[in-house]
Amino acid sequence: MTIRVHIDGRVHEVEPGQSVAAVVLNAAGAPRRLGVPDGPGASGVSDVSAAACAPDGPGVAFRRSANGQPRGPICGMGICHECRLTIDDVPHERSCLIECRDGMNIRTAEDPGDRNGSMGDWSAKDRSPEDRSPEDRSPEIGLREAAGPISAHLDTDVLILGGGPAGLAAAAALADHSVETILIDENPSPGGQIWRRSVRPPHQEDRANKSIRSAIARSTFLGSTTVWDIQPRECRAHCGAWQGQVGREAYLRVRFRRVLLASGARERFLPFPGWTLPGVMGVGGAQALAKSGWDVSGLRIVVAGSGPLLPAVASSLRQRGAEIRLLAEQASRSNLLPMAAALLTDRTKLRQAVRLRMDLGGVRWRFGTWPVRAEGDGHVQSVVMTDGRSEWKEECDLLAVGFGLVPNVEAALQLGCRLSKRGLPGVRREFRGRGQGGVHCGVQGGVHDKVPGDAAGVAVDPWQETSVAGVYAAGEVTGVGGVDLAEAEGRIAGLAMAGERAAAEEHFQSRARGRAFAAALDEAFALRRELLVPPDDAVTICRCEDVAFGQVASHESWRAAKLATRCGMGSCQGRVCGAALRTLKGWIHDVPRPPLSPVPVGAWIDDPEE
Amino acid sequence: MTSLTRDVVIVGSGIVGAAVAAELAGRGRDVLVLESGELAGGATAEGMGHVLFLDDHPEQSELLRVSLERWRSLQEELPNDAEVDVCGTLWVATDDEELQGAERKAEALGSQGIECELISPRQLRNLEPALSSSVQGALRLPKDSVVYPPNVARHLLKFDTRGSGCRSAGRIETQLGVQVVGVSADVSGAGGGAGARAGTRAGAVEVRLRDAPSILARDVVVAAGIATPELLPDCLVLPRKGHLAITDRYPGLLHHQIVELGYVKNAHAGEGDSVSFNVQPRPTGQLLLGSSRQFAGRDRFVDPSLVSRLMKRILEFLPALDRARILRIWTGFRPATPDDRPLIGRWQGDGVWVATGHEGLGITTSLGTAELLADLMDGRSPRIQPDVFDPCRVWRATS
Ligand SMILES: Cc1cc2nc3c(=O)[nH]c(=O)nc-3n(C[C@H](O)[C@H](O)[C@H](O)COP(=O)(O)OP(=O)(O)OC[C@H]3O[C@@H](n4cnc5c(N)ncnc54)[C@H](O)[C@@H]3O)c2cc1C
Ligand SMILES: Cc1cc2nc3c(=O)[nH]c(=O)nc-3n(C[C@H](O)[C@H](O)[C@H](O)COP(=O)(O)OP(=O)(O)OC[C@H]3O[C@@H](n4cnc5c(N)ncnc54)[C@H](O)[C@@H]3O)c2cc1C
Ligand code: FES
Asked: What is residue A126's predicted lDDT score, i.e. its pLDDT?
């Protein structure tokens, strides 16, 4: 079965379940056939209109930035807001989170009628309303007439925020003890970052299916639902597919007695010249988009950055037909040795590692190597790599780059939960040999005496309860540690919330093992000093507002930089630039203001009838 | 600790402190601005930045007129990041009573020489197609504008983050992260009598700092916004909380700052919480949505039920915004006074001056405030009648 969508006025046949971002990438033939006549038949998307043979497809610019640069998705998980498109006349929709629906009308920045946010030079100084050009005064409103989202009030004992391995494990444990649970996730289906549903899976992930089935069969799962405000007893959420119907919106209020935060982590992006070019994506981002139906076959890909995600994603992209040009890990081989030793003590992990190594047979794999800059005309075409001694160029259609993960602590901060020291990036190790405790990062060449806590997670007690009573946290939100640890923490949290402390204790050992392994990973993949050196002044740091690093560098704090330059004021509310500046300058977390994610005006109204 | 170390110290780098600093420096004074937080990070960073003429405070009309005259010339020199947009204001009427109010207002403004025009419902559809058809008409003030206040303050202070303040362009030095903990007049005990002019007076004002030696200054201007009573205990300034929201970019959706004619009525109707429709298109294409008024302490908590009322009110005027996305909601505190008039002038004791209490109009009236205060400090007879702003009225009223 296929469905039809319109992309910039052309009809495309797509498979149900594909994300809008994936079909737009496919339809553009992007990035592979850039500048080359676009033929039909990028698999999964056959363009049924004659116009499809025109040399210019819909292009690769999902949106244009504040200054008019082309942009495409980077995170693939709803954080970066770079994949925004106008969908069914509603501007600024995060296309990576939305599934295609028959008859859907999708507009990219290539469509002249699109009003997705580019303002060009916004000095409006000399223009009185009379002087504005007719386009400026266009009566077009660009917003859909109110389609009547429904309002619903739900009630539950336990709310779980996040349907990844931690949330699912907790949901299953709670269901085992008949505790009423609602599980909410922004993605259409459960699974989180690692087990997200694959539109065309290369192989079935049994463990994922089992875990998802066991959790979902016995609790309420609300997909495509974003929690945008959370208080100790109630949260407000925006559902884009009420009762499974894509496009049917609901404004929800969920009352609960206890809540488990299982909001996971996101990739750490560090700015370098060219990182805003479409075709530069996160490692997890590329993976997520491929799983949601982006056809990567034939693409030449450089996978770079740091962490165990790199080989895993390289292998999965390769299985989907991509050519992995280079796999570049910034950590040096010698740094990884202690972790290899830790692997030897864990049979499952060892087996996974060996299998990965085999899957990646023949792939060029380099350690102590990282990207210097990405180049290309409107789209990435090559990346300059370095190993610290020399620089060289790699041609590619896609640069997948991410420097480890940082926990999504915004909801926890809104609830007032304390953060922990766990999960600090292990930068310290890099410097041990140098006889100095400090890390050179930012503040005009100054030295922080502390390691910047840019990856601090939510602090929890042995039962996974946070510093706020009734608020629990499990999984990467407490510090990055991988799927096994997340499941163990989720199970413990679920059992503890069900009052089954003895049963929960049975999982303490596997949690301790997971945490020890996580600590070994932190050490092994410590960011090298070269990556913590602030970028050139001209490099964009705030992608949402097009603010250059040089504009913020001399300010004394995050808030000062924000007030003076707009850095952090964009759609992602500093999720991307704020995280990078925490790493580069040691600037601390802002207490997030509501909403946790952009939400329509109508959603704030308690009871529209009243 | 007996030697004068500074000519003028200003406490607070908000728009008021910055405007006074620029004015005094322009008159040849040597100014040191002390700020405990970020540059212009108080109310000046929390508000709307609407520079407008209001005729509802007749006793302030001179202050407003002078201010707007000064804004017009300042705007010529403001850099792009001050986001100046002369978009005009539309005061919209929803019923006959408000429509008649608009007509009266038009007459009153006209007689004061303020440019304005009445807009018919038909013209309105053309000017602002997004407005609800229930709007009966409007009054347009084409010369009103919007700015981004923190960067206006930065410009007034000629502040350059690379140094600790730039001395060459004007005699202003700004120090951030310096908290003033007390101000005492005439510490040398040898002060001149009342009415003595700066320069002839022998006394000095002590400015006590947290974690740093005191400073002795000839004159001290307290422009500390809602924190003023912490330094001058009898100086009654109350925090009046407001909620604002900023949307994603919807360029071309609105062209004017649009305010309901009921605004002043709602805003100053007693002590209760109120919401009014007040929406501003930013030069970025974003919309700034406001606003609420309440006396609710200094807690920054975003009140969901008040936001709900506010959004409902906004949708009554702009139903198309139902789907517009809000990126962020925040609260701010207007420095309010019991009689709704700012406090501008000499405080108890020689050499101590106050400039605060501008409530929801302080961006607009900051420039006139600076002129008035500088005139008083110079001993010149001011263009703006000073009596109604005399700060001593608040302690006379309380003592
Ligand atoms: C004209 C205009 C346009 C704007 N446009 C945008 C925009 O496009 N996007 C946008 O995001 N914002 C925008 N803003 C918002 C604005 O810059 C800030 O959000 C505003 O200054 C106040 O916001 P806030 O209350 O969220 O405080 P923040 O700016 O977040 O600052 C509050 C600070 O106080 C600290 N703090 C608060 N309470 C405590 C406490 N109890 N203990 C310790 N520390 C505390 C916080 O950590 C934080 O650093 C705009 C503002 C204006 C005036
Ligand atoms: C929601 C809202 C909307 C508004 N909309 C508008 C509008 O559209 N148009 C308009 O004209 N006005 C508007 N206003 C009003 C305007 O923002 C204020 O009147 C104005 O910013 C006040 O400026 P200020 O310099 O007196 O105070 P602030 O900006 O608060 O400056 C005081 C400064 O003093 C510093 N300080 C305090 N104590 C000390 C100390 N002990 N030592 C050192 N430094 C200290 C503070 O950190 C602060 O930076 C609005 C206000 C709000 C809250
Ligand atoms: S990158 Fe989104 S706000 Fe800066």
From this structure: 36
Q: Which CATH number applies to B2-49+150-236+339-398?
A: 3.50.50.60
Q: Which residue in B73, B160, B249, B277 has the most chain A C-beta atoms within 10 A of its own C-beta, making it the best mutation to test that interface?
A: B249
**Nearest-angstrom CA–CA distance, B75 and A132:** 19
CA–CA distance, A176 with A498 (Å, rounded to integer): 9
Cβ B180 under 6 angstroms from ligand 2: yes
How far, in Å, CA of A150 to CA of A466, rounded? 33
**A20 within 8 A of A104, measured Cβ to Cβ:** yes
Cβ–Cβ < 8 Å for A429, A420: no
Q: Which residue of A has its CA nearest to B45?
A: A563
Q: Pocket residues for ligand 1 (CB within 6 Å)?
A: A 559, 563, 569, 573, 590-591, 593; B 45-47, 49, 148, 246, 286, 288, 300, 327-328, 330-331
- Structure tokens belonging to residue B372: 């008035």
| B332 Cβ inside 6 Å of ligand 2 | yes
Longest CA pairwise span in chain B (Å): 70
What are the chain A neighbours of B324 within 8 Å (beta carbons)? Answer: 143, 600-601
Question: A561 to chain B, minimum CA–CA distance in Å?
Answer: 9
Range among A328-337, A364-373, A529-538 rated most confident: A364-373
**Is the pLDDT confidence value at A144 over 80?**
no
Tokens of A385: 């790599």
Please give the DSSP secondary-structure letter assigned to residue A385: E
Instruction: Assess contact for B51 and B152: CB atoms under 8 A.
Output: no
Q: Which atom of ligand 1 is nearest to the CA of B47?
A: 53
Of B208, B215, B232, B172, the residue nearest B353 (C-alpha): B232
**CATH classification (class only), A150-266+406-504:** alpha beta
CATH number of B89-142+238-336: 3.30.9.10
**Interface predicted TM-score (ipTM):** 0.90
pLDDT of residue B56: 80
Closest approach of B320 to chain A, Cα-based (Å): 6
CA A79–ligand 3 middle distance (angstroms): 10
Total-model pTM: 0.87
CA distance B240 to B229: 14
Q: Mark yes or no for CB contact B39/A564 under 8 Å.
A: yes
Q: What is the pLDDT of residue B270?
A: 63
- Exposure of A516 by Cβ count < 10 A (0-12 exposed, 13-18 middle, 19+ buried)? middle
CATH assignment of A3-119?
3.10.20.440
Q: What is the pLDDT of residues A52-86, one digit of tens each?
A: 333 333 347 899 999 989 999 999 999 999 999 99
**Ligand 3 in contact with A568 (CB < 6 A)?**
yes
Closest ligand (CA of B244): 2
Q: Which of A573, A591, A599 to mutate to test the pocket of ligand 1 (most atoms within 8 A of CB)?
A: A591
What pLDDT score was predicted for residue A445?
25
| Per-domain boundaries in chain B | 2-49+150-236+339-398, 89-142+238-336
**Where would I find the beta strands (DSSP E) of A540-591?**
540-542, 547-548
User: A434 CA to chain B: closest CA distance, Å?
Assistant: 31
- Please report the pLDDT score of residue B160 as a whole number: 54
**The residue to which tokens 């924000």 are assigned:** A562
